[in-house]
Amino acid sequence: MTQIAHADRAHALLAASAAHRWLICTPSPRLEETLPDTESEAAKKGTLAHEISELKLRKHFIEPIGPRKFAAALKKLKADPLYDPEMDTTTDAYLEYVQSVVHAFSSPPYIAIERRVDYSAYAPQGYGTSDCIIIGSRQLHVIDYKHGKGVPVDAEDNPQMKLYALGALKAYEMLYEIDTVQLAIFQPRVRDQPSEWTLSAAELRAWGESIKPVAAKAYAGEGEYAVGEHCGFCRAKEMCRARVETLLSVEQYVPMKPPLISWEEAAEALRRAEGIVSWYNSLKEAALAEALRGGDVPGWKAVEGRGSRQYTDMDAAFAHLQACGIDEALLYERKPLTPPAVEKVLGKKHYRELLEETGHVVSKSGAPTLVPVSDKRTAISDKIDPAAVFGGDSGA
Q: Which pLDDT score, from 0 to 100, does residue 395 have?
C-alpha cells in the first residue's frame, strides 16, 4: 500500500481550495505567491486525519491488506504527536458514509481515492487532489473530507468541489457516460450529516466555461483587489493594503450629521469591526513572528509572557507529598465529563445510542447571538424578550 504524504504534494497556483477567493479577488494568487506558505497546527492535524482516512478507504476499497500490515501502517500514523483519538472516530464515520454511497448503487461502481484531477481546461495549469470519486449508473460522486470544526463548509455551489468534479469529468469521460454530478462534503466535527448538492454534468461544464475569463485574469495577477469574507485564509490577509484601507476607512461616516447613527450604519460598523478584530489578531501574531526572527517592528518588541509552574515528575512529586503525610485525596480533583467530552470518547453513534436516545441527555438552546444574515441558522426575532437575555433594561 503506497501513499504519498499529503504535506509533500505540490499545489497549483489556482488551487481549487482557494477558488472561492481567486474567483472574487483575482490578483490574490500572484500576491500570495510572493509570501511564505506557512501551515497552522490545525491544518497539520487536518492533513494527518486525511492520511488516516486515505489508509482506511484504500484498505476497504482499493488495496485489501492483512490486519497486521494495516495495523502497522495505522500505528505509524498514530505515532504522530498531533494525533488525537477523535481522528479515529471521525475517519471511521467518513468510511461509513462512503460505504453508504457505494452500497446505494445496484452494481459495484468505480472508486478512486486521493485521485489527482486536472481542471486546466478551465483554470490555467489547474490541478488538485480529490479525496474520493465514485462513478456508476451515469452518476459522478465527488466527496471531500474536512476535519476542521471552526467554519461549516457547504457543498452547494462550492467552487472547490465543482473544480474537482470538472477534473473528474475530464479524466473519466472517455470511459463512462455521466449525466448527474453529486458533490458532498463530510465534516464530522461540525455536523452529523454530510452537506450534499446535485447538478447536471451540462450545468457543471457551463459553469466551467463561465469562469474561464476570471481564471485567466487570476493566473495573470490582473484585476482589482476585493475585500470580503474570502480573505480569511489568504496568506496576505495581515499586510494586504486593500484590506487594511477597507477595514480602517471612515470616510463614509464623516458626513454623518445626526448625533446617533442609524441601525443601517450600526450594521456596517459591526461588519467592519468583525474584520478588524480578526485582522488585528492575525497581524499581531505576524508581527510577533517578525520580532522573534530579529526583524524590526518599530515601537514593539517580543518579551516573555507569564510563566507557569510544572512538575518535573508528577508521580514522584505526589509520592513525596504522600510520604510527608499529605492525603492523596487532596491532590486530585474528580469532576464529570461534559456531554461533548463523553461524545468525543464514545464516538457520535455510540453516544447517541447510550445517552440521547435513552433520554439521559437533552439539548438546550444556546444563548442568542448576532450573526451575519448569510448564516444558515433560523432567525429568532420576536421570539425572545431581550430583558430575559440581558436582564433589566434591554436598552430598547
A: 44
Q: What is the pTM of this model?
A: 0.72
Percent above pLDDT 70 for the chain: 90
Residues sharing a CB contact under 8 Å with residue 242, sequence separation 6 or more, in sequence order: 225, 226, 227
Query: What distance in Å separates the CA atoms of residue 23 and residue 318, rounded to the nearest whole number?
Result: 59
DSSP 292-352: HTT---TT------------SSHHHHHHHHHHTT--GGGG----PPPHHHHHHHH-HHHHI
Contacts (Cβ under 8 Å, ≥6 apart) of 69 = 1
Per-residue pLDDT tens digits for 219-241: 999 999 998 889 888 988 888 88
> Could you tell me the three cell numbers for 300?
514593539
Helices (H) and strands (E) in the chain, counts: 13, 5
**Strands, sheet with 139-145, edge to edge from the N-terminal-most edge strand:** 110-118, 127-136, 139-145, 180-186, 195-200
What average pLDDT does this structure show over 152-156?
A: 94
Contact present, 95 and 50 (Cβ < 8 Å): no
Going by C-alpha positions, the residue among 280, 302, 233 that lies closest to residue 35 is 233
**CA 56 – CA 3 distance, rounded (Å):** 12
Whole-angstrom distance, CA of residue 24 vs CA of residue 28: 9
- For the chain, what are the domain ranges? 6-220, 229-292, 334-363
The backbone region for 279, taken as left when phi is positive above 0, alpha when psi lies in -120 to 50, beta otherwise, is alpha
Tell how far CA 119 is from the center of its chain.
22
Residue pointed to by grid coordinates 465527488: 142
Within 187-258, strands assigned E span 195-200
